[in-house]
Amino acid sequence: MDILIYGTINSIALALMALGFALVYGISRVPNFAHGALYVITGFIAWSLLRTLGLNYFFSIVLAIIAIGVVGALMYQFVLIRVRGMAISEIIASYAIGLAILEGLRWGGFKGSTYTLPVFIEGSMTIGDIPVDFHRILVVGIGAAVVISLWLFTHYTRIGLALRGMAQDERAALMLGIDSDVMAVVAMASGAMLAGLAGIVLLPLGNIVVEKGYDVLIQAIAVCIVGGLGSWMGAVLAAFLIGFAQILTVVYLGTHFQMVVSLLAIILTLIFRPSGLFGRQKELEERV
Amino acid sequence: MEQRRKERIDRGIKVRTDGLYALMSWRELGYLTLPRLVLIVGMLILPFVMPSMYWQRVISIVCIYALLAVSFDLLAHFVGLVSLGGALFIGVGGYISAIMNTSFGFPPLLAIPIATIAGAGICTLLLFPCLPLRGVYFAIVSLMYPLAMARVIEALDILGGTDGIMGIDSFPNRWIEQYFVILMVLLFLFGVRRLVNLDLGLVLRAVKDNDQAVRASGMNITFYKAVAVFFSSAMGCLGGACLVHIYMWSGISLFALDFSILPIAATVIGGAGTIVGPVLGCLILVPVSELLRDFGTLRIVFYSLILVAFIVFRSEGIMVYGQRKYHQIERWVKV
After folding, report:
1. Chain A: which residues have CB within 8 Å of chain B?
2. Hey, how many other C-beta atoms are within 10 angstroms of the C-beta on B45?
3. What pTM did the predictor assign?
4. What ipTM describes this predicted complex?
5. Domains in chain B, number
6. Where residue B286 sits, what CATH number does that domain have?
7. Residue in B182, B213, B173 with CA at minimum distance from that of residue B63
8. Taking 90 as the threshold, does the pLDDT of residue B121 lie above it?
9. Distance of alpha carbon B61 from alpha carbon B267, whole angstroms
10. Averaged pLDDT, B11-40
């Protein structure tokens, strides 16, 4: 029973982490190696708005997410757009930006247990006989809401449809009057905002530390590869697979093996089904 | 208004010395060998001109980074595999050499070659699953390994855990230490330059440019990629093995980020795809980073920002610029 409950919570958390990465890669084919950094820095922005400026919690969250969206857009507009299509440069540039953010935060002294965001709702309840705090239940709710609203956004709004069009075939989208540069900026900004949202929702469960940036990046990438790079719904399903696998290993083997699960999942996927469990769309392009 | 454009013409001597049999005069021979001699002699006298023990140690570190940077350049710009985890090679090579030395009692000069070959084999095996695939998989997997390795060693408390392995023998004396690494850098530098011009290097470059064409010629891409990964991880492992014998200590800091990011920065600054550029980049960046040692992790921020600036605005690098100035005449002509 506790495996079921905590597995679900963990899976939703993983899905939240991974969606931003999947969105950006799916649309503009840019692997955003700064994803983890965006996740962590949103937590810090919210923390400083809340603690040093003394703003309202809800207000500072909204501001932090908007700020990170702007950061994402600027990152694309001023750096990534110039190296678009050069795979080596894209990877190195986004990785370097992520490192600069994370190590800059570490240098700025943001480490240790002094930085925590408060949970949204205090208290806990018991399901069956397992105690679960309200915040974790809220994580499940928010995660589900994000997944559903992302689905609605990409299926029923003009911008969402344009984004999907670009993901399927950029040239055809261009011919139909979709400005691919603008759309890529939108995709990057919304990917950054998703990373930020995940940070805001998940960081209250622990301390805000720089190392989380690397962890989140790896978890997000593992989920995306298992689900098939660029496939959003695949990422959600893969999140459940990896999430439960992680909880099972934690219960039966120990907490240290959580990282190994992600690595093993990536390796096994690459060996047996390189395009991921659900990534049919571009299957032929990636296999040599 | 009169319009002008810049014209670039190869120098006559460059054109004449392109062919092997055209070497008719001392001047032409000098033109060809001067840049190489400057590098070789410069590297060899470096240990003598360094003011203190500390800076001599820095030279050894420069050489280790140079090995890593050459290995990055070989993989990224001749095979098209971007390795974001140079620290994996350093770590694997370093740990193997440390174990060989402490558990089996091999002297450093025997442990290092064993670590180089065995480490290269292990790294190739670890990275093998992503070799049949195109795209970002290699970058992702190579990024993950050093982080995961450090975590695994920490968690399982194997190989000395967080304390690391202590009591490793150093080189017999510091001159041997320095000349060993310097000679290794020169050996691999010129070796790789030869390699990329051999038939094997031609195939590797073809894999980068058009893998379908290589496959259509009946060659096994995965095999060739594995060969390239083996060579470049051998260089990295050699660097790692030397490093543990220089510091007489091997620990999880061998998987640190510096080893992943600095060689990339050095390659981009020095000139991507020139093989010798990365060595120049290391000669510039590593001493600067030693001077900035007080700033701690701010150094990584510094490399990253330089890296972004160079890759976006000056992607040719120092070496390509230098080659252009050396080989070509530039002049303004009327359109």
Report:
1. 31, 33, 79, 82-83, 87-89, 91-93, 95-97, 99-100, 103-104, 106-107, 214, 217-218, 221, 225, 229, 254, 256-257, 259-260, 262-263, 266-267, 270-271, 274, 285-288
2. 11
3. 0.86
4. 0.80
5. 1
6. 1.10.3470
7. B182
8. yes
9. 16
10. 77
